[in-house]
Every structure is written in structure tokens, then in C-alpha cells.
Write a structure and sequence with these properties.
The protein is α/β, with parallel strands linked by helices. 42% of the residues lie in helices and 17% in strands. It has a five-stranded parallel beta sheet, sandwiched between helices. The N and C termini lie far apart (55 Å).
Length: 271
């Protein structure tokens, strides 16, 4: 059986008793980083009396995940296997996704334990009253892909949760301010750790505030949904509009990877 186990996002005391019991009996650990996992297990042994497991430790990440499955496919059906990411809930925006899909395809029993998650912890702390939100993880680092993803995150109609590295946080605040300086944001720094901190305010005010700060640590950024009365049309709604093919093609080209010419030809064929 494969068990996916969340690890603390900062404070080791956030580990669960169930997780420690599973660690103790595991024969194989698949880890995003074996050094991080071994360090955590030593802490649990020293502070909470967990028995350090006599197990094999192998890396399993975005670079070698598929290769590992080719090597270990038969082992996964014979041993007690544990998968952990470096911190927090595995599988979501994490190489564990590959392992879940493999288990489903090959009918290998698996379980996912509940536990610490930076996404839900930060959203609960934000004070934003809406219960619905979208999680975008990390935006692309640069270029057109980043601009498109950020624009989508700010205009999707939902509160949106992002992760951001410390060396790019100031850039992100500047980008959001350029698009909408009055947009409300909530920032959570180093959740559950010694230097945890929360910040809430407009993009413009936080952008100015953070220019005076030395930015360190891991960040969760929550973008408040746009409350304007403007309505965004979906791709499907544009297709149903009663517009001349040329005008409709221009709109569709803005919403897709196809050119105006390609859409125009497609619309003409369908009439």
C-alpha cells in the first residue's frame, strides 16, 4: 500500500500521531528530498519519541518520478510505501500526482492522510468571507506566460491563492499594482514558523510598504476577487454571440492560441 502523508509546513508539532505511526512501519520512503525527510524523522524521534524507521529512502521528484516508477513498479505492490513532499500536503502541485495516477492505473491500494496545508491555513487567516477560492500555486517566472497567468488570476471572479518566492515577491506586488493598485491582498509569511506574519491591504499600499522591507521566507499571496459590475464572457459565450465572423474571430483570437485568420476560416466553414 502507498500512503501519502502531509508533513508540517513549519512547526514540527503540527505532525499527527497517525502520520508518525505510519512512518514507523514504512519499508520504503519516496521523498521529494530524502535529506529533508530524514531531518524531519530525526526531529520526531528526538522530540516526540517516534521510532526511527529501518527503511529505504529514495528521491521521487518532478525530474525522476517516471523513471522511479519504471524501476519500482513491482515493489509498490509488495511493501508499505510512504510518499512525502518537503512540507505540507502532498500531491497538489507536487510530483505525488504521478504516483497517484500510477496507483489508480495499476490498482495499487493507496491512502491520503489529512494534515497541514499552506493554502487552507493562509485562506482561513485572510478573513475573506467568501468560502470559494482558486489555487494557482506558483505563477510562471517570467515572460508572456507570467503576464497571462497573473491577468487570469486577477480576473477569474474568485479569490485566488498564489505561492511566491521571497526574491520575486516585490516583483509580484509591482505587477499587481500596475494592473489594479486598489485590489485588496492578503500576504502570509512563514506560516507556523517563528517569523510568521500577516499583511492585509491594497496592492498599492503593500507595494510601497515592502519596498522598505528585507523580504525573506516563504509567502502565500491571496488576491481578493474583483467586485466590479463588469461581466466577463466565457469562451463558450463568445461563440454563441450574434456577431460578424471577422469581429468574432478577433475576440476568439484574444482568448486562445489561434490567430484571427484561423478563427475566421473556422467560423466561415461552420456557417
Amino acid at each position: 500500500m502507498i500512503t501519502f502523508i502531509p508533513t508540517p509546513i513549519g512547526n514540527p508539532q503540527d505532525i499527527t500521531i497517525r502520520a508518525m505511526k505510519m512512518f514507523e512501519k514504512a519499508a520504503l520512503f519516496l521523498c521529494e528530498d530524502t535529506r529533508q525527510t530524514k531531518h524531519l524523522l530525526r526531529l520526531l524521534e528526538e522530540r516526540f519519541g517516534m521510532v526511527y524507521p529501518e527503511a529505504q529512502f529514495l528521491s521521487f521528484n518532478e525530474h525522476n518520478g517516471k523513471e522511479r516508477l519504471h524501476e519500482l513498479g513491482h515493489v509498490l505492490q509488495e511493501k508499505e510505501v510512504v510518499y512525502v513532499s518537503d512540507a505540507g500536503m502532498p500531491i497538489i502541485s507536487d510530483p505525488g500526482q504521478i504516483l497517484v495516477a500510477y496507483a489508480q492505473e495499476n490498482q495499487i491500494p493507496y491512502d491520503v492522510l489529512p494534515g497541514a496545508s499552506a493554502v487552507t491555513t493562509a485562506y482561513a487567516a485572510s478573513g475573506f468571507e467568501e468560502g470559494k477560492f482558486l489555487f494557482y500555486a506558483f505563477l510562471p517566472h517570467k515572460g508572456k506566460e507570467r503576464s497571462i497567468a497573473l491577468s487570469e488570476a486577477m480576473s477569474n471572479g474568485y479569490n485566488t491563492v498564489l505561492y511566491e518566492a521571497p526574491h520575486r515577491l516585490e516583483k509580484l506586488l509591482g505587477e499587481i499594482s500596475a494592473l489594479d493598485a486598489q485590489r485588496e491582498l492578503f500576504l502570509a509569511k512563514e506560516l507556523s514558523k517563528k517569523y510568521q506574519n500577516y499583511y492585509r491591504g491594497t496592492a498599492g499600499s503593500l507595494n510601497e510598504q515592502f519596498k522598505e522591507l528585507t523580504i525573506r521566507g516563504e509567502w502565500v499571496v491571496i488576491i481578493r476577487a474583483d467586485k466590479s459590475i463588469e461581466k466577463s464572457l466565457s469562451f463558450a459565450e463568445v461563440l454563441t454571440l450574434d456577431l460578424p465572423p471577422k469581429s468574432k474571430a478577433k475576440i476568439l483570437a484574444q482568448l486562445s492560441d489561434k490567430s484571427v485568420k484561423e478563427w475566421y476560416n473556422e467560423l466561415i466553414k461552420s456557417t
